[in-house]
Input
Amino acid sequence: RYLARILPRFGDRQVAGITPMEVRSAAIELLPDASPSTRNRTVITPTRAVLYHAHELGWRLPARIRLFPVPRGQAVKPATRRWTERFIEQADADGLLHLSALVLFMQLTGARVSEAINLLGRDVDLGRRTAVLRKTKTEVDSRRYLPDHLVERMRALRVGPDDRVFRYRCRFSVNERIAAVCARAGLPRLSSHRVGRHAFATNALNAGVSVRVAMEAGGWRSSAIFLE
Output
């Protein structure tokens, strides 16, 4: 997705001749008004991946491209219990039962939005109250456990074995739906990460769960990332 904008900038240049300084300059030229984090994510990181792959093929020397420094802002707050209750109430009233179930699933299991939307009916065992996330970010299947009220919501969706449990196919569609419900409910707009995985971690720690147990339950490998 990001390379489509980057490739015309370098044209038919040989990768051996592309310097780190030129990559940083390209990020500024392509995104003159963007934040440092956006330049890092959409230009520096994908270009660096291509040049590193070229190095592995023996086409160039290693390229160490520095990221743009990102200023530390205020801590991003996750969805609170009151926010979640109001959101679910509005989504249910709008007939968006799959969205309600999806938000609760992410918040109560720590699933990433990409993992949740790829969940199929055959990966869920409502009798045993479990769901298996396939092809997670850590490249291993991960079993999550479902509270009773989430089980009842998922049962009401009546999903077939080969159906996507929550219907959505793209995380951008999920975030657009969440934003629309927030607007109708008069709630601050939150991303799927803040209403799901971020809220899961915060709620677990607030409930007195140890960092190790919370990390295992949510599928984190790095304690630094988890605590951050």
Notes: The CA atoms of residues 204 and 213 lie 9 Å apart. The longest helix spans residues 36-56.
